[in-house]
Amino acid sequence: MTALSGDRSLCSPKGELLGLFLTTTIDNCHRYSRHGARASTAPIVGSGRPRLSNGSCLNLRRTPVFGTRCHWCPIVPRNPARADFPDTLRHMSDAPDPWHFPRPALAQGLLETLGRGLTSARGLFASRRMGKTEFLLQDLVPAAHAARILTAYVNLWDDRQDPSAALVAAIAKAVKPGMLEKLLRDLRRPIKSIKASGNIKALGEASLEANFADERHVPKAALPLVLQELDRSRKVLLLVIDEAQVLTQAQHTDFAHALRAALDTRKQTVKVVFAGSSESTLRRMFARRSEPFFNWAPLEPFDLLGRPFVYAMVEKVNATTKVPLSATDALAAFEALRYTPEFFRRYLDRYLTHPRQGSAAALEHTQTHIFESADFPGQWRTLSTTEQHVLRMLAGGVTDLHGLEARKQLGIALGRKKEVSRSMPQHALRHLLERGVLARVEQGDYRFEDETFADWIRRAAG
Fold this sequence. Notes:
Elements: E1 8-11, E2 18-21, E3 59-60, H1 87-90, H2 104-115, E4 121-125, H3 132-146, E5 150-155, H4 163-175, H5 179-188, H6 191-197, H7 205-212, H8 218-233, E6 237-242, H9 253-264, E7 270-276, H10 279-287, E8 299-301, H11 307-318, H12 327-336, H13 341-353, H14 358-374, H15 376-381, H16 385-395, H17 404-413, H18 423-434, E9 438-442, E10 445-448, H19 451-460
Parallel strand pairs: 4-7, 4-8, 5-6, 6-7
Antiparallel strand pairs: 1-2, 2-3, 9-10
Helix pairs in contact: 2-3, 4-8, 5-8, 8-9, 11-12, 13-14, 16-19
C-alpha cells in the first residue's frame, strides 16, 4: 500500500470517526493512538510517497480530519510483536471509496460550461462538510483527466499560512512533474550566479533583485515561469482552488494580484474553479472593487446532495446488515442532520455498528457527538451578550433584525425598558460576519454559515 504523507482516510472502528494521516514512523516501532477524545497524538513524519509495508506503522491524529478519500477499515490493535497488517488496511489507499456517491453529470456540465469559452472561471460555495471537496476530487478531477485536460487541485486551507507555495507546486506538478524542484533551486541560488547563468530571461533584472531578496517571494517569482512552461505545452489546464477564500486575507494580497494578472492573459488555456466554504468571504472576493479578483468569476451555490444520495447509501447499508434501514428513517435523519453528507455518514456508521438500537438511537448519538466535537459552547462564550441574543433571534426565525419589533425584543433581552437603537444590531451583525459566524445573502438577509450551530443554539443555548 502506498500513501502520500498527509493523505486522508476515514476510519470506522466501533466508535467515532477520526481522520487518519498515513505515514511511516521514524524508528519502525509500533505506536497507535486509541480512538476517542483522549487519544494521544503521535508526530506526523515522513515526506514524499512512503511505502507502507511490513514493519511500517500508522500514526493516528486525534483531531478529526474528514478528508475526501474515505475508506472503511479496522483499527490495527497495538501489538509490538507483529509487524503485519490486515489485507483490507494494506490495500486501502489504492481502492476506490465504496461510499462515494458519483455525480458524473454535474462534473461534465461544469467542464462543458468552462469549455465553451464564454467564461474562464466559476465560483462555487457550500458550507463545510456538504460534499464539495469530495465532488471536486472524486468527480470533477477524474472527469477532466478523462478529457485529457491537465488538472491541478490545491486546498488552500491546508496551507493557509503560505498558499502561494502550495498553488504554484500544484500547477507545476500538473504541467511538468519534477520541474518545480529544479526551478526552486535555481531561484534560491545567489543572485550573481543566476545572472551569470543567464536564466533570467523571463524576469526583469530589477524585479529579480527585489523578488529574490526575501525567501517569501520565491513562489511568486516561480508562478510566471511555471505558467510559461504550460504555454509551451499548448495544453489546457483546469485549476481547482479549494477554500479559495484564503486568498482574501491581507497578507496574501500581493500574490492574489500576481495570480490574477497571470490568469488574465491565459483565459483560453487556464480554466479555474474557485470553491469555498465561506459564502460571505467568497462574495466579497468577487464583488468588492478593492479585491484582486473583483468581477472575475460568477459565483453560484454548489448543487447539494439530496434523495438519490440517501437512497444509494441505504442500498449500500442494507447490503451489509441483517437489520435493514428504511428509506423513510434515513431521509428523516438526513433532514435532521441539515442535509449534511458527512454527518449522515456518521449516522450510518453508528447504525451499522449498533443496528438493533434502531435509527432514532443512531441519530441521537450522532447529533450529540456533533455538538460535542464542534465545541459550540466554547465558541458561544467568546461572543458578547448582544451577539448571543442576535444569534438566538436569528435561530428562532426573526428575519428583520433592524425592525422595531426585533429591536424591542433585543432591548427586553438586554434588560432595557425600550427598544435598542438600530446601531446595536448593526454592530453585532458586522462582527458576526467578520468572524464567519453569519453570511449575508443580500441586504438585510442573514443566515448561519454553519446551520449546525443554529441547531445547537435552539437546543442548548435557549
